């Protein structure tokens, strides 16, 4: 990262651009995911079944939804570790409000709003006071989770109306397609378009790759980031609602530790932790890959923990491999220059 | 004849650069440069910005490895794996921009790496501060050794850097524009110390744009241009004009001259613009069809002024008017909406997003105008980018290539395309031809000239005198954040501008 | 530039919520009719003479793995399944959370087990998937801590809630020496059976013979060793004159005993409750603990397996009054709400503890 | 944002001065702040319940702090170099389980062996992190997030759901946690030694100052010819080794060890370090500040229990503390930036 060493910058030649595009991690991950799905449905009993599909969709629901805004945030070079705690807080609030006798139809928007407010706090601390997002969101991670426990203690609220809990766990017309899949697809589409086909999306990459140049191009860096955190909070809130309904149980500890899974999935999907690089399809693939692996391994009675090793390794490799290839290319290029000018 | 009244023949040069080349990506920064540096001499290294001076320094410092060629210390080939090796070889470097550790104390910054130790191999802080004290006394600066480096003024930072270099009892001392931020008194003290070092037998390499300093300090000078070695001669035998001519490498007339245009109505009006600690009470105006140059030394505050005008930096007081309407401060968007465009000084950090494709860079400021129903379709952007890179005859492979893969000159064209595509009525160009090859330079000059001819108002910040004199209708010279002189094309000569920039009494002050 | 996508997002997500969720009028806690949906109760009639099928796939899903108590329970289950010539399987989360348990239930459904023997981490959170299991013709037996009635076929109750509550109170009285302050160190505040025992205990304490006994606090160690350990510390700091700590959970009692035995309170404060002989042996030997109680957890797993097998074979349906034999444990009768009671707990002391190994 | 990247929006930083943190002079006052907070908390609690100051209670608090403080020491060193180590919780787990197994299998191994074994296991884990960060050029956040999973996974698949119980461990191993010399429990003594050694190293030895320099300005560190690679590896190895040591202490203190030991601990450790005044962007803060942070967090925990405040407030308070801490640092920084621009206004 030392800004002195210009030598580090890989000066890919013209064809290199295409090569690196093909060998870019997010395309690798897409292929990888495809392979895993195919192999699993061939070799693992009951993996391909429609019911298992439903289960998988339900399992990846929280991660995939939270990953949508998280991708944007990391693309701008920031991070939000407080999402899982926001989820927990909204879940607690949902239970509490429900006990207060509010109607579920009012509770749900309120919960999304609470999530957004959590995001506002993050956004203000980070863009308003210019605090490092890592430290801030580690702080709010503890804070929001703590508040969640304050609200609901260690208890649980369970008696949510069946037609709602049923909707979340159910499938369209009792078929193979789970209801929540509509939600996932819709949100994924919206975020995908915003990130990849709008000026706003373009600005995210500019901010992440070079905030100063973005500023010089008339992009409102701070404001952009602020709203990303708000959206991230709102989505986390929504997921809090869905989580509560899926398990028909509002608890303060819901979704504890999910933030790491989400960040892992996003990075696995080829988004650079430095910002400026990464695509949503890659991230979606990353999430699917993780969930599918988990599901398949469980069906094969492999302990879920063995998967931790796979997840972790994939995560490190997703950054390590590109770096290694880059370094190799760089050296090769320099050597070539040496020979060229030696002549 | 140079060697004659330098060191005796028998003893090899303390440090020798031999046929060294270095290139970054497609940009060849240094090509086959050789010159010796003897113990006991002060040797100046001069050249325009981008001539490759700093690259030479970084190679001597062990930051960069030469692609080809060798460095010799006392006649022996050396290969520096890193700065540590260079240090070990007795080479101390004072960089253009200070490299202090803000969180460490001043004394510690000076001593870092070889702090005095107690017998328990612990750091002897008393001793450390004492050493710093001694150095500061020698430099005659009142600095508290125990305060942290964070918050030191640029000048003080520079002085600490110098103290750092002195402390290492270097046998070779390399100074890359150490005086840029120093006051006359401080400069004199520095020189006194450097002279004594030289007399003790150290080899000094001195880089500066201030010719009177060079003549005051150095015996010999090496001149570089476009990464190549031009000459190494006795300073005594050279006039300032000779040096400049050799640096620029061509007579000023050879530069593409700006064609005369009848200036139209006033486009930009800056009044009493001030920012604490950066610039004060800056006023000037630009008419359409006019090219106004902001000249001055590095650190005189030229870029800062224009960045404040464009809104990327804030300012404390004063007003900026575009076509008579007052501009909201601190908002690049407002500036863009008012028809302003800024081609910034630092291409890599401010002008372009190196990782992004050429296409994306060109369309960055116009993305919203190009989108339909808030959506962007690849086609629109590509066509737009293609048109403008075409207009500027940018040499590129595919628009989807990362802009970082282009040569300096073509990168600059991309930046120009990016901003011209916004159809500005006022174009601010900061160091438009820094570090780009002569050919492209001429193209850029031609372009600016024709833009002006089409009624565009142009503000040009440039450190290259020939460029300033060749292109500008009027020249605003800044010194230490204030307007030192406003010269018309007729009044402007190298001397008048230089003198104004350096604060010597000259006709410049009349303006 | 920001306005458009932001509003776009909030609007659509809101819209989706409405579309997906508010399809039906204002639902509040009161108006909610939460009948856990398809509670397909005992379907076919029982056939008492039906033979126990062989090769039944019986899966155990405890609250969490690597909990010594659980290990003993499922150990018993394993033995039973072997006697039944079935296929034994043990799966479970590493954290005692309901959400991860659900994933495992789903997996078991996929693997088409015949019986799922589960200890619910949250009586309600597991319900939807348990009902899916039953819909897939899988018999669901709960043990250790029950799920809500309408999503399981039978519940193996280690002992009547009444019985345990009473013996806890009795031991507390003895250990405290007839009078003084006592405190309870329980598992999680929403652990089903711990709470019911504590309730009984409290009612017991109202009786005259317990008049001198004062329950000052119920602390929660979340069945986490470290947490319990520190909760024990907290108790003694807040209540200097504490006479006895009653821990109705094996993790809690072990932690409390370990803290007391290593602290200056040893000998002053008594520890009792429900614990595993193997874990408690050293503390009983060093007199930190005089007496504690427990049923034989191995038998719970054992009984659960047999109950499950009986059901899967159509021998019983889970209706009250039905009878079945559980190997070495003899005959059992299904009680109200499909409850099957194991029997009275054993009390362990210095004298008898070496006779037990679990 | 990520600790290792310098891309944190330069445009958001106050212009005129490079986003500064604080004067060194304020460093001391910074730790003083924690001490004061601590004093107030203890005073208040003690007034409400004098037993909070009883020997036993103090002993318990110190014992509970010990493990966190040991880990915070290592973490502080890593964070000071502008990196982070999220894998410490998992490293504690793997070392705790390894040592527990080792001791239960050979009952008469001396304690020192256990300690060394723990240190070794941790050091190896730390080395892997360091190598990946330095030579793989993978940001520390990513590396240690990955190894957080990997090390935990290894522990689980090794333990396979089994657990080591107190009664399987040798007496001398268990009593070690509570035995004390001159009234100071071994655990506390070890923690004190570690913190003291760490502080001295960072304050008075070249390598320590170089670590500060690296965090303060990575670019300048390279130019100054500091052995960046060596120091970075050293920092991560240290952090790992101390986490390993903490693992041994954990096993000795809590007797029962399973594969889940220390899960989620990394956040407490980072919290302690941040509250202790170590800036996430490196270069400033101190080891003993971090240790104080650890103490403060622990005392808050037990104080809540004693004051009979709903224990659930604890986490919220910790979170608020972290944010308070960084806000405080930031405010100081901004004020300095302003005063500087005024002072430099020689124009």
Tags for this model:
heterotetramer; A: 343 residues; mainly alpha; ABC transporter involved in vitamin B12 uptake, BtuC; two-stranded antiparallel sheet; 14 helices; 2 strands; 75% helix; 1% strand; globular; disordered N terminus; B: 511 residues; alpha/beta; six-stranded mixed beta sheet; 20 strands; 33% helix; disordered C terminus
Class per helix and strand makeup of chain C? alpha/beta
The greatest interface here is:
A-D, 70 and 64 residues
How many DSSP H or I helices of chain C?
Answer: 10
Name the CATH homologous superfamily of the largest domain in chain C. Answer: Response regulator
Overall domain count of chain D: 1
Q: At CATH's second level, what is the architecture of the largest domain in chain C?
A: 3-Layer(aba) Sandwich
Taking all Cα atoms into account, the compactness measure Rg of chain D is 21 Å
The CATH class assignment of chain D is Mainly Alpha
For the record, the CATH class of the largest domain in chain C is: Alpha Beta
Low-confidence stretches of chain C: 1-8, 17-24, 33-43
Output the number of helix runs of chain D.
Answer: 13
Q: What's the pLDDT, averaged over the residues of chain D?
A: 83
Please describe what this structure looks like.
The complex is a heterotetramer of chains A (343), B (511), C (358) and D (347). Chain B contains 18 helices and 20 strands. Chain B has helices at residues 53-60, 83-88, 106-111, 125-139, 154-167, 184-199, 211-217, 240-248, 302-310, 332-337, 347-351, 358-363, 367-370, 378-391, 408-420, 438-453, 465-471, 494-502; strands spanning 15-24, 27-37, 42-46, 68-73, 76-78, 91-94, 172-176, 203-207, 220-225, 228-234, 266-275, 279-287, 291-296, 317-322, 325-326, 340-343, 426-430, 457-461, 474-479, 482-488. In chain B, helix 6 links the parallel strand 7 and strand 8 (203-207). By secondary structure, chain C is an alpha/beta fold. Chain C has two domains: 37-157 and 297-342, Rossmann fold (3-Layer(aba) Sandwich), CATH 3.40.50; 161-293, Rossmann fold, CATH 3.40.50.2300. Chain C is 39% helix and 18% strand. Chain C contains ten helices and 14 strands. In chain C, helix 2 packs across helix 10 (297-312). The model of chain C is unreliable at 1-8, 17-24 and 33-43 (pLDDT under 50). Chain D is globular. Chain D has one domain (2-346): ABC transporter involved in vitamin B12 uptake, BtuC (Orthogonal Bundle). In chain D, helix 2 (55-80) packs across helix 11. Chains in contact: A-B, A-C, A-D, B-D, C-D. At the A-D interface, helix 6, helix 9, helix 10, helix 11 and helix 12 of A face helix 5, helix 9, helix 11 and helix 13 of D.
């Amino acid at each position: 990262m030392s800004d002195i060493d210009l030598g580090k910058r890989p000066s890919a030649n013209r064809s290199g651009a295409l090569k690196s595009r093909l060998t870019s991690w997010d395309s690798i991950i897409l292929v990888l995911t495809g392979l895993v799905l195919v192999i699993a449905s061939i070799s693992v009993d009951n993996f391909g079944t429609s019911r298992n599909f439903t289960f998988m969709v339900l399992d990846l629901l929280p991660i995939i939804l939270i990953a949508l805004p998280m991708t944007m945030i990391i693309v701008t070079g920031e991070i939000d570790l407080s999402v899982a705690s926001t989820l927990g807080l909204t879940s607690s609030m949902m239970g509490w409000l429900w006990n207060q006798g509010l109607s579920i139809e009012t509770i749900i928007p309120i919960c999304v709003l609470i999530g957004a407010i959590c995001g506002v706090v993050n956004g203000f601390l980070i863009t308003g006071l210019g605090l490092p997002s890592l430290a801030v969101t580690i702080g709010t991670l503890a804070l929001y989770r703590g508040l969640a426990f304050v609200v609901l203690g260690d208890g649980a609220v369970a008696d949510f109306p069946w037609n709602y809990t049923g909707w979340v766990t159910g499938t369209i017309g009792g078929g193979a397609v789970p209801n929540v899949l509509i939600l996932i697809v819709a949100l994924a589409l919206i975020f995908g378009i915003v990130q990849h086909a709008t000026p706003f999306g373009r600005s995210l990459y500019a901010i992440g790759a070079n905030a100063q140049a973005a500023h010089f191009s008339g992009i409102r860096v701070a404001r952009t980031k602020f709203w990303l955190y708000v959206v991230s909070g709102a989505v986390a809130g929504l997921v809090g609602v869905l989580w509560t309904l899926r398990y028909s149980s509002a608890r303060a500890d819901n979704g504890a530790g999910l933030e790491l899974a989400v960040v892992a999935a996003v990075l696995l999907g080829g988004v650079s932790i430095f910002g400026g690089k990464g695509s949503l399809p890659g991230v979606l693939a990353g999430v699917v890959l993780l969930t599918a692996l988990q599901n398949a391994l469980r069906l094969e009675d492999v302990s879920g923990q063995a998967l931790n090793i796979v997840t972790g390794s994939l995560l490190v490799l997703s950054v390590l491999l590109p770096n290694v290839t880059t370094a190799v290319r760089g050296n090769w290029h320099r050597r070539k220059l040496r020979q060229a000018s030696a002549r | 004849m140079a060697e004659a009244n330098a060191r005796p023949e028998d003893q090899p040069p303390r440090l020798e650069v031999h046929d060294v080349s270095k290139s970054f990506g497609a940009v060849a920064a240094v090509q086959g440069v050789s010159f010796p540096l003897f113990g006991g001499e002060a040797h100046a290294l001069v050249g325009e910005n981008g001539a490759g001076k700093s690259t030479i320094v970084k190679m001597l410092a062990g930051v960069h490895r030469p692609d080809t060629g060798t460095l010799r210390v006392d006649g022996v080939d050396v290969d520096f794996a890193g700065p540590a090796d260079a240090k070990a070889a007795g080479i101390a470097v004072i960089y253009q921009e200070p490299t202090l550790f803000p969180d460490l104390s001043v004394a510690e910054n000076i001593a870092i790496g070889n702090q005095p130790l107690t017998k328990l191999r612990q750091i002897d802080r008393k001793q450390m501060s004492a050493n710093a004290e001694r150095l500061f006394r020698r430099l005659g600066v009142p600095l508290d050794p125990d305060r942290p480096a964070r918050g030191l003024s640029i000048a003080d930072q520079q002085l600490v850097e110098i103290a750092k270099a002195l402390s290492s009892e270097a046998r070779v001392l390399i100074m890359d524009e150490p005086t840029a931020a120093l006051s006359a008194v401080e400069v004199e003290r520095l020189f006194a110390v450097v002279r004594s070092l030289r007399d003790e037998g150290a080899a000094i390499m001195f880089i500066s744009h201030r010719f009177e300093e060079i003549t005051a300090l150095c015996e010999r000078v090496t001149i570089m241009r476009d990464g190549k070695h031009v000459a190494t001669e006795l300073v005594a035998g050279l006039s300032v004009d000779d040096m400049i001519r050799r640096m620029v490498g061509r007579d000023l007339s050879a530069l593409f001259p700006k064609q005369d245009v009848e200036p139209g109505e006033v486009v930009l009006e800056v009044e009493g613009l001030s920012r604490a600690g950066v610039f004060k009470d800056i006023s000037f105006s630009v008419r359409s069809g006019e090219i106004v140059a902001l000249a001055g030394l590095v650190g005189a505050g030229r870029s800062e002024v224009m960045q404040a005008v464009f809104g990327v930096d804030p300012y404390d007081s004063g007003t900026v008017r575009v076509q008579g309407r007052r501009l909201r401060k601190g908002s690049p968007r407002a500036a863009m909406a008012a028809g302003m465009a800024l081609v910034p000084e630092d291409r890599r950090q401010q002008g372009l997003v190196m990782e992004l494709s050429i296409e994306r860079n060109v369309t960055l400021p116009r993305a919203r105008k190009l989108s339909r129903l808030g959506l962007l379709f690849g086609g629109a952007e590509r066509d737009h980018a293609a048109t403008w890179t075409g207009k500027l005859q940018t040499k590129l492979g595919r628009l989807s290539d990362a802009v970082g893969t282009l040569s300096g000159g073509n990168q600059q064209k991309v930046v120009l395309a990016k901003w011209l595509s916004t159809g500005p009525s006022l174009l601010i160009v900061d160091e438009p031809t820094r570090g780009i090859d002569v050919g492209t330079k001429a193209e850029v000059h031609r372009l600016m000239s024709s833009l002006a001819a089409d009624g565009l108002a142009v503000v040009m910040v440039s450190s290259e005198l020939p460029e300033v004199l060749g292109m500008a209708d009027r020249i605003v010279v800044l010194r230490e954040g204030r307007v030192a002189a406003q010269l018309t094309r007729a009044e402007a000569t190298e001397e008048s501008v230089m003198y104004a920039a350096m604060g010597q009494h000259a006709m410049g002050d009349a303006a | 530039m920001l306005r458009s996508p932001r509003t776009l997002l909030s609007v659509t997500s809101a819209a989706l919520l409405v579309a997906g969720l508010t399809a039906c009028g204002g639902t509040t806690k009161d108006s909610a009719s939460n009948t856990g949906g398809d509670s397909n109760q005992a379907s076919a009639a029982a056939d008492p003479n039906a033979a126990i099928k062989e090769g039944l796939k019986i899966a155990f899903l405890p609250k969490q793995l690597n909990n010594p108590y659980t290990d003993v329970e499922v150990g018993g289950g394993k033995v039973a399944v072997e006697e039944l010539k079935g296929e034994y399987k043990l799966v479970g989360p590493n954290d005692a959370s309901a959400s991860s348990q659900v994933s495992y239930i789903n997996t078991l459904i996929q693997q088409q087990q015949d019986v799922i023997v589960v200890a619910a981490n949250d009586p309600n959170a597991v319900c939807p998937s348990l009902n899916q299991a039953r819909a897939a013709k899988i018999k669901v037996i709960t043990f250790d801590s029950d799920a809500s009635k309408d999503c399981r076929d039978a519940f193996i109750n280690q002992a009547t809630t009444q019985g345990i509550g009473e013996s806890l109170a009795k031991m507390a009285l003895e250990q405290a020496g007839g009078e003084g302050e006592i405190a309870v160190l329980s598992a999680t505040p929403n652990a089903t059976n711990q709470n019911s025992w504590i309730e009984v205990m409290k009612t017991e304490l109202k009786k005259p013979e317990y008049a001198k006994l004062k329950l000052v606090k119920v602390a929660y160690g979340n069945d986490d060793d470290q947490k319990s350990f520190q909760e024990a510390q907290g108790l003694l700091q807040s209540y200097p004159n504490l006479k006895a700590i009653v821990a109705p959970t094996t993790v809690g009692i072990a932690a409390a005993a370990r803290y007391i035995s290593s602290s200056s309170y040893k000998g002053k404060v008594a520890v009792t409750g429900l614990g595993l002989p193997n874990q408690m042996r050293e503390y009983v030997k060093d007199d930190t603990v005089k007496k504690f109680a427990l049923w034989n957890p191995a038998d719970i797993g054992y009984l659960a397996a047999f109950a499950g097998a009986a059901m899967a074979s159509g021998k019983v349906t889970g209706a009250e009054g039905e009878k079945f034999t559980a190997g070495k444990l003899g005959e059992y009768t299904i009680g109200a709400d499909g409850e099957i009671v194991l029997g009275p707990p054993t009390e362990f002391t210095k004298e008898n503890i070496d006779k037990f190994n679990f | 944002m990520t600790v290792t990247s310098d891309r944190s929006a330069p445009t958001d930083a106050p212009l005129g001065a490079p986003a500064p943190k604080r004067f060194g002079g304020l460093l001391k006052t910074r730790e003083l702040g924690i001490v004061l907070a601590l004093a107030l908390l203890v005073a208040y609690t003690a007034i409400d319940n004098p037993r909070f100051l009883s020997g036993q209670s103090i002993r318990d608090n110190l014992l509970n702090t010990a493990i966190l403080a040991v880990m915070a020491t290592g973490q502080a060193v890593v964070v000071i170099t502008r990196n982070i180590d999220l894998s410490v919780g998992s490293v504690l787990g793997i070392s705790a389980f390894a040592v527990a197994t080792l001791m239960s299998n050979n009952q008469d191994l001396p304690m020192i062996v256990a300690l060394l074994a723990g240190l070794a296991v941790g050091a190896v884990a730390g080395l892997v992190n360091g190598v990946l960060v330095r030579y793989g050029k993978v940001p520390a956040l990513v590396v240690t997030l990955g190894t957080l999973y990997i090390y935990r996974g290894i522990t689980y698949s090794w333990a396979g759901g089994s657990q080591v119980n107190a009664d399987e461990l040798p007496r001398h191993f268990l009593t070690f946690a509570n035995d004390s010399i001159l009234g100071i429990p071994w655990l506390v003594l070890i923690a004190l030694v570690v913190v003291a050694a760490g502080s001295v190293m960072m304050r008075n030895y070249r390598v320590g100052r170089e670590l500060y320099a690296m965090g303060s300005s990575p670019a300048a560190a390279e130019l100054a010819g500091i052995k960046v690679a060596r120091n970075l590896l050293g920092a991560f190895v240290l952090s790992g080794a101390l986490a390993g040591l903490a693992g041994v202490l954990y096993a000795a203190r809590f007797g029962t060890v399973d594969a889940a030991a220390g899960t989620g601990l990394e956040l407490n450790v980072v919290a302690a370090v941040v509250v202790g005044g170590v800036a996430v962007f490196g270069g400033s803060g101190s080891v003993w500040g971090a240790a104080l942070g650890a103490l403060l967090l622990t005392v808050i925990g037990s104080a809540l229990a004693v004051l009979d405040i709903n224990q659930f407030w604890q986490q919220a308070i910790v979170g608020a503390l972290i944010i308070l801490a960084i806000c405080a640092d930031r405010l100081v920084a901004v004020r300095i930036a302003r005063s500087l621009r005024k002072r430099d206004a020689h124009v």
